[in-house]
């Protein structure tokens, strides 16, 4: 991967493997030397690559794209060379750390043809740029609208015609880079196969300390575990959307049109909470309103998040973070606004790039991003190949875990809520949380189900949209607001598809964050309902978290999970625990709403 949401070092330049004709047998000493040399050579190359990508995403121009391509090709070349070199030592009995490093080095693409490497890197950079630059230009000469503006309309407008226009406007942009994406998939698969993987999807599924088939089965197991909760939420949401938009817009059964959920990808439904909120037992508190009224700026938003982490006993962000991060959308140039966290040198040079707006949703996202940053800082004493998450789902889960502690109590403590949290507002709180976390689950699952099939060649480019919507209908129960158009590329309207960032990680993170939250609350001595727990200011919980973060990727992830939670499986049970009161309430509401509807007939 050249680009990642949490920018982590590509496993880079390795010492040259001895020529194939080397007669001597590989030895343990030689393997250790190879691994040490390989790691030692990584830093400079990685720093150059990170800088080129940072600049390319902060200033989208032809020149920065060319520079990102140049350094991307070098990283790819080095990673491939290291992976090939590592093979020579596969049969040896090495010390645990070395054996793990040897394995990690080989979980990469390898394109032996320099032209193909360059083409791969070029397409990766160009796809990032194309997504970052995309805008919807309505007919009639109005101003072109960047994604952020379209998202704002989807979040706040309740006019179905307007919502549909904006939805279709954005989804009309991605077909322009569909061909580039399909060519990229071909190259990527070639690289995966050169390393002995069936395809790139299999390579991705091989990164979880288990065989790729076992990982697919785990994903399905977890989905089945949480599906009944999703179904209850979907049913309730349908009733409320029908009440808001009428039966002509929202059908009584079958999938619900995707433009009505307050989000471009229907992946989080929290923006339609006002339409869904319970008649009683709901708070009237609106964090977005408070942030807007107080003109909370991007730096202050970030400082709220920083304060949470320091309250857990973690360090203050380095001065360079504030100097080098991009926190607001620049007025006069194109940037990749999709939020990301970067570690440049594997030490203290950490940054985020995010076009922060003062909303409740973004308040959580900034905590998410700092989760990546504090993970990066925690493992920066590990050697290079271990500077990563226990798996990529862990990396995505840390900031979200912390954000689960943004409770009314917490908001009151930091002065964002004046009133005492209202009594009996729990169901409203839980519903709001579920609209973000539970609604997300089948989305996250279907994105990579789609990609696994694309990479496996089961889905051909002509069928991209067909299978994308089959999966969305089947798992999410949402449908395209208008018929599929020939040559369309709706999947490419999602950042992670265009930028080729794997997505199963977010599904895992949505299980893990509840497991971590439950464990940290326990560590803090908390015994009440999980949704009311905030570990803000609890250094004992902080130390527990920090201990896991500091392990980085040095051990198989079940060990890291065990250190933090005592559990060794990623599992939906903590999530189900957390939402248990809501599940009961939703099922009860759904019964009542069904009875009321039946009585009308
Ligand atoms: O991409 C992100 C983060 C950066 S890693 C903002 N997320 C996923 C998304 O936006 O689709 C966070 C949750 C899901
Ligand atoms: Zn992230």
UniProtKB/TrEMBL annotation:
- One GO-annotated biological process of the protein: proteolysis
Sequence positions that bind chloride: 208, 505
UniProt cross-references to InterPro entries, sorted A to Z: Peptidase_M2
Molecular function terms, GO-annotated: metallopeptidase activity; peptidyl-dipeptidase activity
Q: Which cysteines are joined by disulfide bonds?
A: 137-144, 337-355, 521-533
Residues reported to bind Zn(2+) 2 = 368, 372, 396
Q: Which keywords are on file for this protein?
A: Disulfide bond, Glycoprotein, Metal-binding, Signal, Zinc
Q: Please indicate if the UniProt record lists Metal-binding as a keyword.
A: yes
GO terms for cellular component: membrane
- Name one matching Pfam family: Peptidase_M2
- Asked if the record carries the keyword Disulfide bond, the reply is yes
Binding of Zn(2+) 1, residues: 368, 372, 396
Question: Which positions are catalytic residues?
Answer: 369 (proton acceptor 1), 369 (proton acceptor 2), 496 (proton donor 2), 496 (proton donor 1)
- Domain of life where this protein originates: Bacteria
User: What's the protein here called?
Assistant: Peptidase M2 family protein
Specify the species: Pseudoduganella aquatica
């Amino acid at each position: 991967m050249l680009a990642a949401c949490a920018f982590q070092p590509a496993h880079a330049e390795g010492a040259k493997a001895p020529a194939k004709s080397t007669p001597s047998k590989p030895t343990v000493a030689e393997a250790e030397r190879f691994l040490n040399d390989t790691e030692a050579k990584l830093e400079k190359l990685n720093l150059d690559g990170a800088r080129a990508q940072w600049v390319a995403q902060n200033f989208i121009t032809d020149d920065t794209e060319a520079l990102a391509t140049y350094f991307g090709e070098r990283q790819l070349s080095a990673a491939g060379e290291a992976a090939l070199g590592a093979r020579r030592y596969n049969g040896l009995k090495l010390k645990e750390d070395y054996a793990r490093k040897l394995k990690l080095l080989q979980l990469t693409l390898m394109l032996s043809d320099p032209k193909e490497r360059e083409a791969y890197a070029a397409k990766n950079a160009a796809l990032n740029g194309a997504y970052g630059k995309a805008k919807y230009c309505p007919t009639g000469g109005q101003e072109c609208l960047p994604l952020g503006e379209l998202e704002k309309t989807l979040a706040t407008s309740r006019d179905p015609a307007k919502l549909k226009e904006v939805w279709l406007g954005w989804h009309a942009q991605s077909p322009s880079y569909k061909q580039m994406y399909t060519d990229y998939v071909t190259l990527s698969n070639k690289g995966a196969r050169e390393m002995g993987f069936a395809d790139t999807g299999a390579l991705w599924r091989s990164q979880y300390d288990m065989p790729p088939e076992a990982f697919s089965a785990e994903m399905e197991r977890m989905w089945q575990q949480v599906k009944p909760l999703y179904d209850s939420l979907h049913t309730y949401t349908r009733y409320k959307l029908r009440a808001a938009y009428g039966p002509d817009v929202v059908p009584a059964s079958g999938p619900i049109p995707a433009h009505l959920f307050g989000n471009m990808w229907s992946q989080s439904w929290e923006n339609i909470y006002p339409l869904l909120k319970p008649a009683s037992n709901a708070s009237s508190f609106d964090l977005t309103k408070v942030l807007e009224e107080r003109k909370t700026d991007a730096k202050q938003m970030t400082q709220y998040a920083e304060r949470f982490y320091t309250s857990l006993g973690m360090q203050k962000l380095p001065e360079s973070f504030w100097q080098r991060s991009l926190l607001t959308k620049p007025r006069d140039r194109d940037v990749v606004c999709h939020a990301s966290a970067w570690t440049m040198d594997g030490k203290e040079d950490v940054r985020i790039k995010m076009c922060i707006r003062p909303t409740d949703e973004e308040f959580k996202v900034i905590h998410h991003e700092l989760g990546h940053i504090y993970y990066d800082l925690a493992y920066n004493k590990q050697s290079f190949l271990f500077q990563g998450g226990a798996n990529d789902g862990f990396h995505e889960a840390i900031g979200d875990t912390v954000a689960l502690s943004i409770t009314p109590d917490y908001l009151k403590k930091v002065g964002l809520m004046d009133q005492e949290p209202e009594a009996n507002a729990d169901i409203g709180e839980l519903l709001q949380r579920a609209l973000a976390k539970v609604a997300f689950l089948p989305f996250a699952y279907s994105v990579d189900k789609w990609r696994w099939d694309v990479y496996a060649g089961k889905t051909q480019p002509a069928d991209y949209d067909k299978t994308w919507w089959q999966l969305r209908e089947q798992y999410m129960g949402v449908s395209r607001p208008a018929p599929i158009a020939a040559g369309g590329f709706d999947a490419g309207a999602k950042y992670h598809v265009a930028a080729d960032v794997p997505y199963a990680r977010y599904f895992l993170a949505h299980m893990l964050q509840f497991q971590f939250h439950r464990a940290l609350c326990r560590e803090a001595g908390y015994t009440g309902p999980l949704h009311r727990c905030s570990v803000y200011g609890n250094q004992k919980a902080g130390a527990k978290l920090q201990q896991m973060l500091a392990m980085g990727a040095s051990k198989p992830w079940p060990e890291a999970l065990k250190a933090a939670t005592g559990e060794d499986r990623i599992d939906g049970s903590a999530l189900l625990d957390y939402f248990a009161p809501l599940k009961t309430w939703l099922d009860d509401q759904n019964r009542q709403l069904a009875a009321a509807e039946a009585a009308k007939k």
